Each structure stands twice: as structure tokens, then as C-alpha cells.
Amino acid sequence: MKIPVETKRFVIRRFEERDLQSFLEFMLNEESTKYLMFEAEQKTEDGARALFDYVRDAYDSNEPIHSYAIAEKENNRYVGSCGYAPYDDGIVECYYSVNNDEVGKGIATEVTSALAKLLSSEVEVRAYCHPENYAAQVVAKKSGFKPKGVQSHKYFGNFGELFIYERNS
Fold first, then answer.
1. Domains assigned to the chain
2. Which residue(s) pair with 5 in the sheet?
3. Contact between residue 136 and residue 115 where contact means Cβ atoms under 8 Å apart
4. Region 103-120: what's the mean pLDDT?
5. 82 with 12: CB under 8 angstroms?
6. In what order do the strands lie in the sheet with 78-88?
7. Each residue of 132-154: pLDDT tens digit?
């Protein structure tokens, strides 16, 4: 998938240095990260900065990390992040998150729909949501993913709602 990707209102692009403060606001907000699989250290300022730098440094490496900023098209302002990771042969798992003050504006649905549509031309696209993260489950459904029930995640071992993207949604 070629980055950047444009949607109607947003650009999915690599993280830029100017995104750091908004990224930190998200990572240090306990409400924002309570359902996400970050380690406790990554939810500290030092840990979040290290994660941000690690992702940026990996973009041009032999093992890139597909974690991207969601920025408003009109002013390049960071509002959240999205991305994907290999799950199994021919399967990727996508994720989406929006900064707390941007929740409820349809951002996650717009970018997740675009991301899943692009990726699904080459691989199966999945999303796992914490069973109590109802907002993420709504985004998955609105973005064209179909619920497949609670399943154990292959790598983390935790249980979550599995959603699989159906391209013709």
C-alpha cells in the first residue's frame, strides 16, 4: 500500500515530528488507551516518545512498521493514528485510534474504510476489538467489517471481538 492515502477529509501519512505532542496526549490519556495493547512503559512520556521514534525510524528499514498518522487534509493537523500489522500468511490486522477531543466525528470510520478497502485487494483484513470497547466495534461495523465472535488473539492470547472486512460492504 502506498502512503500517503487521501480520504475525503483526511490524509493517512507517516508520522512527522510535529505530531509528537498530539501523539503524547493520546498515549498519556488513560481513557484513550485503556482497551489498547500497549505496555505500561509505553503509556509514560518517555515510553511514548521512544515508541514514536521507533515507528518513525522503522519506516525505511527492512522491517517497516505500518503505523500512520491521521491528519486533516486542510491543515495537516494530527487527529489520530491507524495502521496494520501482519497476522498470518495473507492476513493483516488493522487498527485505528482517534485523539479524545476528536471522538464522534466519523474520523475512525472514514480512514478505516479507506485503509481496509485498499488492503483487501491483496490480503484478508481483520480487526480485533476488546469485548468492552463498543465504540471500536461500531467503527469496525460501519467500515465494512463483519463480526465473527469472540476469539483468542494468536499473538497476545487475549480474547477479543474478531471482525473481518468484506470488500463489497
1. 5-126 (3.40.630.30)
2. 12
3. no
4. 96
5. yes
6. 5-6, 10-13, 66-72, 78-88, 91-98, 124-129, 159-165, 145-152
7. 999 999 999 999 999 999 998 88
